[in-house]
Amino acid sequence: MSDAPVSYAPSGGPDEVCSYEDTVAAYDPVLGLEVHVELGTKTKMFCGCPTEFGADPNTQVCPVCLGLPGALPVVNETGVESAIKIGLALNCEIATWCRFARKNYFYPDMPKNFQTSQYDEPIAFNGWLDVLLEDGSTYRVPIERAHMEEDTGKSTHVGGATGRIHGADYSLVDYNRAGIPLIEIVTKPMTGVGDRAPEIAKAYVGALRDLLRALGVSDVKMEQGSLRCDANVSLRAKVGDDPGSEAQQEVPLGTRTETKNVNSLRSVERAVRYEMTRHAAVLSAGQTIVQETRHWHEDTGVTTSGRVKSDAEDYRYFPEPDLVPIAPDREWVERLRASLPEPPAQRRRRLQETWGFSDLEMRDVVNAGAVELIEATVAAGATPAGARKWWGGELARRANADGRDLGDMGVTPAAIAQLDGLVQSGRLNDSMARQVLDGVLAGEGMPLHVADARGLAVVQDDGALTEAVNTVLAANPDLVDKIRAGKVQAAGALIGQVMKATKGQADAAKVRQLIMDTVAPEQG
Amino acid sequence: MSTLSRDDVAHLASLARIALSDAELDRMCGELDVILDAVATVQQAPTEGVEPMSHPMPLTNVTRPDEVKPSLTAGEALSGAPEAESDRFSVPRILDED
Ligand SMILES: [Zn+2]
Predict the structure, then answer these.
(1) B34 in any annotated domain
(2) CATH fold group of domain A462-522
(3) Per-domain residue ranges for chain A?
(4) 171-190 in A: which are within 8 Å (CB) of B?
(5) Which residue range(s) make up the domain with B11?
(6) Could you report the per-residue pLDDT of A10-24, keeping only the tens digit for each?
(7) How many residue pairs bridge chain A and chain B with CB atoms within 8 Å of each other?
(8) CATH code at position B37
(9) Is B57 on the interface with A (CB under 8 A)?
(10) What is the dihedral of CA A491, A497, A501, A504, to 10 degrees?
(11) Is A253 in a helix, a strand, or coil?
(12) What is the ipTM score, two decimals?
């Protein structure tokens, strides 16, 4: 949500920052993350308006979500179910009875002049989420609460020299987004993170994204704003070298700042790192941190002062009289618990074991977003190692270079399974397989078809290959002498020539074997 | 008995986005105090052993299925708007970023 502005700090030059090394040498960071996720329900939280992304302005609105007098909201049952599922997946307790509350503020993004939210009675509270870090260790993120609320409208600012809000003459508001169900997930202060604070923040949001996707409650597209993150950062004096020590936990928390709308995993990591170094510079100069919101600037990688943070009492929360309390009976909760998919972390462990991947291999696959694709490819008959090699290697590289999702590359798990089969059977060698993949990506059809059409097959006929080897050996007596003198690496040049002579259709290992057998049988 | 300070009233006015002159602030301070005193009478009601109540009907879990209902057209939605442009509500410039 965007709250009402209170005041701006004067804009000066860029803020001073310390080096990251100096920051973590002197201070102990504490994080708090607030994540808003837009649910993927068909309708809004309190009315039957559709929630489709990209509709014409103000065509998905009604008297309820426009806050017209006399309109009566009614809760979306699927929205409540999704909230409970999220709470259960985050190992939370589920409230036996809870209410909605009005969060009052005057700002045109909410036509009602309040946002329907939950205050001191969240539907889910007191949970945790285990997050896998790059070095293979796990950090347990303590979850304070997950509560139900609604999204706000979207403003476009017109006029002004820069198109930015300062100097805008007026604003245009589209309320299609107002009322779309949101779940706000709030962590408890994350302590003991030490110099890994930025990594842990990123890993948590990534793990949450995977979890929400697995639950099927949201499409979780950060670039479309269906998952948004606010990052709270504070520093306190460092005591000793163990951020988890008891002595460290006894040091009171420092003043925090809240960096709003950090909307990509990479930005979460960068914004936390930046705020840590900025806080350190302020504190090291003997000054104090102002409790305020900060704006994150993706392009420059810095935050700037937003507004002084409003106190909760300024929102004058009170129970929403138009919505009756939600009291999920235990049978319902247990039914939802039974419907939960296998948690992503557990599923990963199971798949890693089944596939026989090392920790490092599995982590690369997870980071490449290839787990589901490999699973489908193995199900289509590929070897796990083959599936990993293509999705985690060649395709991940190409997806990365094109800035695309691995799943949007235009190649199916069935095609990769067929390609792996052609390699496993010896029909294709690695370089041919890559050529076949080029063909598949270019829309030439399935791998078998591409291989046939391009005439790609490893030469299995020893007679033809032996002839090619002998021709190359006869043309290169100097290299043959070198090999005989013990310089086995000279064989590489010969292999290259044979491969060239056979248009890459020979099996390189076999060529090597033939050369060594002919030239220096005792060294082969 | 004065319970509201002038600063309190100024703060409330800023939350409500109402601009008050110094004279208005002084007047509102007095008027709101009278109102608060009147409402304070309610606090004398004996409430010991009475549960706070936000909803008079003993209802819970009133929900609707997640089914799309027709929305208004943009024209209908904007028919009551003092100003509109490009099928959007036009409002005075706002200061914060979205
Ligand atoms: Zn509506």
Answers:
(1) yes
(2) Arc Repressor Mutant, subunit A (1.10.10)
(3) 10-333, 344-454, 462-522
(4) 171-175
(5) 6-43
(6) 445 678 999 999 999
(7) 159
(8) 1.10.20
(9) yes
(10) 80
(11) coil
(12) 0.89
Query: Has residue B25 been placed in a domain?
Result: yes
Of A93-97, A134-138, A274-278, B30-34, the poorest mean pLDDT is in A134-138
The DSSP line for A186-240 is EEPPB-S-GGGHHHHHHHHHHHHHHHHHHHTS----GGGTSEEEEEEEEEEE--S
H/E element, A347: helix A344-355
| C-alpha torsion A112→A118→A120→A126, nearest 10 | -160
Query: Is the Cβ–Cβ distance between A267 and A259 less than 8 Å?
Result: no
Among chain A residues, the shortest Cα distance to B96 is held by A5
Number of domains in chain B: 1
Domain assignment of residue B27, yes or no: yes
Locate tokens 């948690």: which residue?
A343
Q: Which of B72, B90, B96 sits opposite A170 (nearest CB)?
A: B90
pLDDT of A459 reads 73
Q: Which of the residue ranges A123-137, A200-214, A506-520, B63-77 would you say has the lowest mean pLDDT?
A: A506-520
DSSP A95: -
Is the whole-model pTM more than 0.80? no
Contacts of B82 in chain A (CB under 8 A): none
Q: At what angle do helices A462-475 and A508-519 cross, to 10 degrees?
A: 60
List chain A residues with CB under 8 Å of B69. 43, 47-49, 62
DSSP-derived pairing of the beta strands A181-187 and A227-237: unpaired
According to the per-residue pLDDT averaged within each range, which of A10-24, A33-47, A509-523, B48-62 is highest?
Answer: A33-47
Give a yes or no: residue B89 inside a domain.
no
Question: B94 and A171: CB-CB below 8 Å?
Answer: yes
